[in-house]
Amino acid sequence: MTRSGDRTERLLARPLSVLQTCARCSGLRAGPTFAVAVVSSSKALIFLFAVFVTATAAALAAPAVERAPPAEGIVLPEQLFPTLDRILASALQQSPQAIRASVDVLMAEQMEDVARARLLPYVGGGGTYSAAQERRLDRPGSFPAEKLTYNFGLTQPLYHWGALRDGLRVAQIASLIADRNQAEAMRVLVLDLRQVFLRLVVEKAGLKRIQTMVQLAEEDLRAMESRIASGAAPNAELLGAQLRLEDARLELERGAEAMRFNRAALERLAGIPPLAPEDIPDVIPPLPPVPGGPGALLARFEGDRDAGGDFRLGALNLQLEQERLNYRIINVNLRPKFNIVTGAMQDEVSYTGSPADRARIQSFYAGINLNWTLFDGHATRAQRKVSLLRTRQLEGERETRRAEVVERARNQARLLEIAQRQIAVSEGRLGQLDGLVRFQEEEVARGNLSRREAASVALSRDDILVRTFANRIEYLGRLAEFLSVIGRDPLLARIPESRP
Question: N or C: which end of the chain has fewer CB within 10 A?
Fold first, then answer.
């Protein structure tokens, strides 16, 4: 979590005693206003200054919330392919998803400043200057008249039953929710980028196999043309060889276009410049198994009440805290709110009621202002019910999410075990064909076997190699998703700070 986020966590965890002495929050300003006794201006200004200073005091920073350490001894795709590691590092900083998530965090921070502003003094006022010709009934004719009135004041919330303070905490929690949403978006982005990159490796291997097929089809066509020229084969067989070559070429073009499209999708998703052909690896090497198997990691995860620090579960917990604060704010809507007021005003007044006895008066004032909504048509009562229903709804979503994460972890652990066993099967078949290919190459060298017959077996071996690559990427994908679900993916620690 970021340093600013840590500071907010600390602020939420500790009692806001500083703010309690100066500003208890609120938001409603409707209702009758009652003027209370005016205190001396010098004492009022001193008190107002003290209120201002305490209201703007900053909270101290706090240590970050620690996550479970990454799993050790496990090989992930970015460890095998440095190009993928660079892509992931760049995507976490400048991909479109990363930028959108960062903007959401920045907007939440600005709303936090809006909520904090309600605790601070606000200054305003207005004035009017007018020049007129007045016709008086007690004298003949009209007379010029000028008038200047103004009223400028400062208002500092004093006691609002904790509503303004809770409003600030709601905004701070919204910033934390934005942080967790950003982290979840980055987690999903990393999984998607891994899968797309690994598919490109398999597609590149598949293209090499298709290129071999095209070469064999071209050799078959040349051989058929020679046989026809020598009269060993009828002309009708030429068409079949030509169609087989065209099929192979079309398959090659189709595969090349699929790879180009997926490479462009990867570049767009990661927000990176175009990749060179050599940036895509040619092979996926054999993979070591998970040390101790996924069962041990799964057992530790199932005993974690926070579900491995799941970001969405964390956001739901924060939303619950938000709703409880919203209920507290709603609960004080109909209570009186107190503010400190001070200012200066100028107006005209007649102490006798006679138009001829008007005087300009200037006054400087300081005192306590009271706003009190006595009846709001049962709106507050309805808002309380909505808030309670929303709390129950969030509690249900939280439990559903916790059960969903645990079940997904179990599912991924099981699929990971199956993928690991499938790799063993593929490796066994590949080893068999490797031995057969080596034997046939020796037979070709001895002159006991034609090169064309050996090439057919080599092509079958390439088919199994591509399938083995596909099984390896399935295993890598299952492993990455399993570690991500249980919060042990090393890349989770590399998610960039949202705030400095």
Answer: C
Exposed (0-12), middle (13-18) or buried (19+): which is 124, by Cβ within 10 Å? Answer: exposed
Give pLDDT tens digits for 290-325.
877 788 888 888 877 777 678 999 999 999 999 999
The contacts of residue 294 (CB under 8 Å, 6+ apart) are: 412, 413, 416, 417, 482
Close Cβ partners of 342 (under 8 Å, ≥ 6 residues apart): 41, 44, 45, 48, 153, 154, 365, 366, 367
Q: How many domains does the chain have?
A: 1
Total length of the chain:
500
As a whole number of angstroms, the distance between CA 490 and CA 500 comes to 22
| 498 Cα distance to chain centroid | 10
Residue 396's nearest CA partner among 327, 331, 325, 323 is 323
97 contact partners, CB below 8 Å, separation of at least 6: 185, 186, 189, 269
Quick one: pLDDT at residue 289? 82
Asked if residue 9 has pLDDT above 90, the reply is no
* Average pLDDT value for the chain: 80
Evaluate whether 123 touches 154 at the Cβ level (below 8 Å).
Answer: yes
Q: Mean pLDDT lowest for which of 48-57, 79-88, 181-190, 423-432?
A: 48-57
Domain with 276 in it: what CATH number?
1.20.1600.10
Q: In this structure, is residue 239 part of a structural domain?
A: yes
Q: Is residue 137 assigned to a domain?
A: no
For residue 499, tell me if it sits in a domain.
no
> Which pLDDT value is given to residue 71?
57
How far is residue 408 from each of residues 194, 301, 422, 460, measured CA to CA in Å? 19, 12, 21, 37
CA–chain centroid gap for 18, Å, is 33
pLDDT per position as a tens digit, 146-175 = 788 999 999 999 999 999 999 999 999 999
**Residue appearing with tokens 């409603």:** 28
**CA torsion through residues 273, 278, 284, 288, sign:** negative
Cβ-in-10-Å burial (0-12, 13-18, 19+) of 332 comes to: buried
pLDDT of res. 293: 79
Tokens of 117: 């502003």
Angle made by CA atoms 311, 317, 321, in degrees to the nearest 5: 140
Phi–psi pair at 375, nearest 5 degrees: -150, 130
In a domain, 197, yes or no: yes
Residue from 458, 477, 467 nearest 423 by CA: 467
Pairwise CA distance, residues 44 & 121, whole Å: 14
